[in-house]
Write a structure and sequence with these properties.
Layout lengths: L18 E3 L5 E6 L3 E2 L2 E2 L5 H13 L6 H11 L10
Antiparallel strand pairs: 1-2, 3-4
């Protein structure tokens, strides 16, 4: 059984093809290619802005509403590397 890893910026499930890149071109295991490229975040946004962007995508599977997705993300985003404080 393998542990699923998730982007530490947007929470997208990660696999080898979706990994972002470091400044030296190597794969970054913590972030997806949509959030992180060449060693830098692609968007300059707040955690709340990221949640607003991600909520429709998370709800698209039909298992939860956008509001439920927002509430869930507000619960776990603060624990992710990009959004942790201190």
């Amino acid at each position: 059984m393998t542990n699923q890893s998730y982007c530490q910026s947007c929470a997208m499930p990660l696999n080898e093809e979706l990994l972002g890149s470091n400044a030296d071109g190597s794969k970054n295991p913590d972030y997806c290619l949509y959030c992180y490229e060449k060693g830098a975040f692609k968007q300059d946004c707040t955690m709340e802005e990221m949640i607003e962007f991600c909520a429709p995508h998370m709800a698209a599977g039909g298992k939860m509403s956008e509001q439920a997705a927002r509430e869930a993300m507000r619960g776990f985003f603060p624990q992710m590397k990009r959004w942790r404080r201190g």
